[in-house]
Design a protein that fits this description.
Helix content: over 70%
Oligomer: single chain
Strand content: under 5%
Structural class: mainly alpha
Number of strands: 0
Largest sheet: none
């Protein structure tokens, strides 16, 4: 039991930290109409990790983190530029960016004997293997990002949003994987769109409950936690949408 808690505990904390940053960013993403930006930036960050690994840098070492963040920032700045100059087709540009980054990653991993495993880890993550020693540093960075966003969102503008977004996504991808990053960002924000009051609180509760439920199901079923968390989050989101839409409260 103690061994199970030692694994589930850090994983749950990691999920709560991701939820804490992704709920407000997700609301902003929906408001801007750029729903798939996190998939694109997450995939670009993952591509940075793959490139660093191909160059022989130590997995999870500082150079890998630098490569992931550099790639994500470059992708975010590119999307900021296209948002400014081609706003009418920004969602299409985001989609193309994602698919190109994903296929470049596949090509880089094609000659790797463990390429399929690396790609799987990138997509569904390895949340159960999160190192507890890293979580205080992650919490500190997330806290800084939240303070900057909540206090100076209007002052930092669109460029600042893309930079903060890139930093948050880079960290989150390496904690929980691309799919959970997308789900954590979009599903709680989307599920609470009918709520006028308490939207943030409900979104946080949904995310926290989904991580808890998914990890618990993984513990008893021996199935991978990432997909279980995504499915749990979706089921809870449907319940929230049904309950909130029945009250017919506009956004």
């Amino acid at each position: 039991m103690n061994l199970e808690l030692s694994i589930i505990g850090p994983a749950l904390i990691a999920g709560l930290l991701v939820t804490a940053t992704h709920v407000p960013l997700g609301v902003q993403v929906l408001n801007r109409g750029i729903v798939f930006i996190d998939l694109a930036v997450a995939q670009i960050a993952g591509l940075g990790v793959i490139v660093a690994d191909a160059l022989g840098f130590e997995p999870h070492g500082p150079m890998v983190q630098v490569a992931a963040l550099t790639a994500a920032l470059a992708g975010a700045l590119l999307l900021n530029w296209t948002d400014k100059h081609w706003p009418a087709v920004q969602e299409a540009v985001i989609g193309v960016t994602f698919i190109v980054a994903a296929n470049v990653a596949i090509l880089l991993l094609a000659a790797d004997a463990h390429g399929a495993e690396h790609l799987k880890d990138l997509l569904i993550g390895q949340i159960l293997w999160v190192k507890a020693s890293l979580l205080p540093y992650v919490a500190l960075v997330y806290a800084v990002l939240l303070v900057v966003w909540l206090r100076w969102a209007e002052r930092i503008g669109r460029m600042g949003f893309y930079v903060l977004f890139a930093v948050a996504i880079t960290i989150s991808v390496q904690l929980v994987g691309v799919y959970l990053v997308f789900a954590s960002l979009i599903v709680p924000a989307l599920a609470t769109m009918y709520l006028r009051r308490g939207r943030t609180l409900v979104a946080y509760g949904l995310g926290a409950a989904a991580y808890g439920a998914g990890l618990a199901l993984s513990l008893v079923s021996d199935l991978p936690p990432g997909p279980l968390i995504v499915c749990s989050m979706t089921v809870l989101a449907v319940v929230v949408v049904l309950l909130s839409s029945r009250s017919r409260i506009p956004t």
